[in-house]
Automatic annotation (TrEMBL):
<feature type="domain" description="Aminotransferase class V">
    <location>
        <begin position="22"/>
        <end position="385"/>
    </location>
</feature>
<protein>
    <submittedName>
        <fullName>Selenocysteine lyase/cysteine desulfurase</fullName>
    </submittedName>
</protein>
<dbReference type="GO" id="GO:0016829">
    <property type="term" value="F:lyase activity"/>
</dbReference>
<dbReference type="InterPro" id="IPR020578">
    <property type="entry name" value="Aminotrans_V_PyrdxlP_BS"/>
</dbReference>
<dbReference type="InterPro" id="IPR015421">
    <property type="entry name" value="PyrdxlP-dep_Trfase_major"/>
</dbReference>
<keyword id="KW-0456">Lyase</keyword>
<keyword id="KW-0663">Pyridoxal phosphate</keyword>
<dbReference type="InterPro" id="IPR015424">
    <property type="entry name" value="PyrdxlP-dep_Trfase"/>
</dbReference>
<comment type="similarity">
    <text>Belongs to the class-V pyridoxal-phosphate-dependent aminotransferase family.</text>
</comment>
<dbReference type="InterPro" id="IPR015422">
    <property type="entry name" value="PyrdxlP-dep_Trfase_small"/>
</dbReference>
<dbReference type="InterPro" id="IPR000192">
    <property type="entry name" value="Aminotrans_V_dom"/>
</dbReference>
<dbReference type="Pfam" id="PF00266">
    <property type="entry name" value="Aminotran_5"/>
</dbReference>
Length: 394
């Protein structure tokens, strides 16, 4: 089931694999040594040369991060902007939209908590309407219902999460993008969990904006995120804030925004983390995103099958297509207790709570679920080991 990935090699290049079973990649993946070394080398250079001087000396290395991110998702470097995290990247676009009372935002039932809170805040501030599209029988966003809702001329934005934080669902983003494009409505895609896990192409997705993080499936440093803004949609989303990095003060009363996606950035950055992110993206590109996706999805399927065979375990993943994230509960055990038992045996998982998914988990009678998220460096024997630990809870 290697799917073209040299698992022995990538585990040797991942120090954390030697001491634990890490199935919390949807939270924060283990970085390869190349990412750690690149980040630390930049920091050491700053310590010996100075921050501004190192930025100047490493300008090509910093610029290469934009090029690598663009290559990862089929974009142009001029369509990429960097941020401190995926939420701030998303905020820069969403809060810059020119919304008015009565305008409508369409989103999905599996939407992430931070995004939902932003919608609700703008609903209170501006009087916009937030419409949550129901799921179809499989549990993914209902495309027929979405198409009908898009007939409403008040719709100004389609915004949704590609893969939710609370389960293995892969929403049909390309189909959503096609419907939004046909209706002439901008499409904002939160790809926080899919970047680095799935082989993405923004042309196929037909999104106007895509946001992602470095710390999850890309295996980059924490405190890194990015956004893609399609060139001909650049002026649709005026940045939420501007500073000396996103605009130039051209006269006492005038300024000019950057002509490309850098207008969504702020000037100050953790450049050591930026080049670390670039190293992480290059590592993924070297392995091949098609091979990465195939292995992660196969491991996710194996984990689901393994857990399904255990009495008292219930899988809660929805959708026609599912990824490497597996959500489950164990009868008689709170998800936090399952997490603690696994942690005591050297296995990292997470717990997804209803506070991050109020439109989804409560409607299914769930307050929280255990979230185990596989990556390509995990092994089949690790999956079997986790199955045996969960089975031992009975």
């Amino acid at each position: 089931m290697n799917n073209g990935i040299d698992v022995v090699r990538v585990r040797d290049e991942t120090p954390g694999c030697q001491s634990l079973v890490h199935l919390n990649n949807a939270g924060c993946a283990l970085p390869p040594a190349a990412v750690v070394d690149t980040t630390m080398d930049y920091l050491r250079n700053e310590a010996s040369r100075g921050g501004y001087e190192t930025q100047r000396d490493r300008a090509e290395q910093i610029a290469a991060t934009y090029t690598s991110l663009a290559s990862l998702i089929g974009a142009r470097p001029s369509e990429i902007a960097l941020a401190d995290n995926a939420t701030r990247a998303w905020d820069m676009v969403f809060y810059g939209m020119r919304l008015a009372p009565g305008d409508r935002i369409l989103t999905c039932r599996s939407e992430y908590g931070s995004n939902a809170i932003a919608y609700l805040q703008q609903a209170k501030r501006l009087g916009v309407d937030v419409s949550v599209i129901d799921d179809d029988p499989s549990g993914q966003v209902d495309l027929d219902l979405l198409e009908k809702k898009l007939d409403d001329g008040r719709v100004k934005l389609v915004s949704m999460t590609h893969i939710p934080t609370q389960g293995g669902l892969i929403n049909p983003a390309a189909e959503v993008g096609a419907l939004a494009e046909a209706a002439g409505v901008p499409f904002l895609l939160d790809a926080c969990q899919s970047v680095g896990q799935l082989d993405l192409d923004v042309t196929e997705l037909r999104c106007d904006v895509l946001t992602g993080t470095g710390r999850k499936y890309l295996r980059g440093p924490r405190g890194t995120g990015f956004l893609y803004v399609r060139e001909n949609a650049m002026d649709t989303f005026e940045p939420a804030v501007l500073d000396n990095g996103s605009a130039v003060w051209t006269s006492p009363t005038e300024y000019e925004m950057s002509p490309d996606a850098r207008r969504y950035e702020t000037w100050e950055k953790n450049f050591a983390a930026v080049v670390g992110l670039g190293a992480a993206v290059d590592y993924a590109l070297d392995l091949g995103m098609d091979a990465i996706e195939a292995r992660i999805l196969a491991l996710g399927d194996l984990l689901r099958r393994t857990l399904t065979g255990i009495k008292g375990v219930r899988i809660h993943d929805l959708g026609r297509s599912r990824c490497g994230i597996v959500s489950f509960t164990v009868e008689g055990f709170a998800p936090d207790d399952v997490k603690r038992v696994l942690a005591g045996n050297g296995v990292n998982v997470s717990v997804s709570k209803s506070t991050s998914s109020q439109w989804d988990l409560p409607s299914r009678g769930l307050a929280s679920v255990v979230r185990a998220s596989a990556h390509y460096y995990n092994t089949e024997s690790e999956i079997e080991h986790v199955g045996s630990l969960v089975g031992g809870l009975r």
